Structure formats: structure tokens, C-alpha cells
């Protein structure tokens, strides 16, 4: 079964119907059809909220979070081990700390990261990435 880690970038593109939303929609359909499994760090989940709130206000951010609950994406808490792995990655790679949580989760589950965030290019070939075209 295909496994994904969905970055906040991907879900924001989906909810705002930006380029790449069709790719995310296809992945979400595969989750609903139980043909794939997806994970998201609570850190990246929080990014969806604060980015939406800053751009569109708290009311829209709350609606987005309610919509997000309808998709079978497993939210994963940032425990000590995940935080340690993310911190080690941050110490060796110049990417945003929140992105390190997505990468750490992908490594743990041997999953493909779904994103359009160019910072993930800095991770190298150790990670598989499903790029959104923007």
C-alpha cells in the first residue's frame, strides 16, 4: 500500500484550489478508497491553521480544520523521538523546522512526502517526494 506524508503546503494548495490541488485531490481519493495511507505531523497540521488564519482569518481557518477532519489522514503527535529526529535533521539541513517533522515522519513510515515546498529539495535523494506543480 502506498504511504504518504502530507505537508501543510499540499493541503493549503488543495483548500485554496491552487496549482497542485488536483494532485492532492487524487491522493485524498486514494485515501478514502483505502488504496493508500497518509500521515501528518501535528506540527504541519498547525501550520495549516496559522497560515490560513493569517491569510483568510480565524473563521475560515476553523472551517478548513473541520474539512480536514473528513479525510483519513493520521495525525501524529510530535513525541520525543520524532522531535529528536527532526532536530538532528534541522542541525544538518537548512530547511524549516516544521518541514523537518514531515521529513522525520516520512522516514519513519517509509512514505512519500507530498509538497510543493522547494525547501524539501535540500533533503537530497534519501527522501521520496511527490512534487506539486505550481
Summing up helix and strand content along with how strands pair, one would put the structural category as alpha/beta
The named CATH superfamily = 5'-nuclease
Stretches where pLDDT is under 50 for at least 5 consecutive residues are: none
Number of helices: 6
Q: Give the overall shape.
A: globular
Radius of gyration: 14 Å
| Strand residue percentage | 15-25%
Adjacency order of strands in the biggest sheet? 3-2-1-4-5
* Percent helix: 40-55%
Would you count the extended β strands for me? 5
SSE string: EHHEHHEHHEE
Largest sheet: 5 strands, parallel
Tell me, what is the CATH class?
A: Alpha Beta
What value does the average pLDDT take? 95
* First-residue to last-residue Cα separation: 27 Å
CATH fold-level label: Rossmann fold
| Domain unit count | 1
Task: Using the 3D structure, state the CATH architecture.
Answer: 3-Layer(aba) Sandwich
How would you sum up this structure in a few lines?
The chain has 134 residues and is of the alpha/beta class.
SSE blueprint and pairings:
Elements: E1 2-6, H1 8-15, H2 21-32, E2 36-41, H3 42-56, H4 58-68, E3 73-76, H5 80-92, H6 97-109, E4 112-115, E5 129-131
Helix pairs in contact: 1-2, 1-3, 3-4, 5-6
Q: How would you describe what is shown here?
A:
The protein has one domain (2-131): Rossmann fold (3-Layer(aba) Sandwich). It is built from six helices and five strands. α1 (8-15) runs parallel beside α3. 54% of the residues lie in helices and 16% in strands. 35% of the residues are buried. The protein is of the alpha/beta class and 134 residues long. The protein has a five-stranded parallel β-sheet with strand order 3-2-1-4-5, sandwiched between helices. The protein starts with a strand and ends with a strand. The mean pLDDT is 95. The protein has helices spanning 8-15, 21-32, 42-56, 58-68, 80-92, 97-109, and strands spanning 2-6, 36-41, 73-76, 112-115, 129-131.
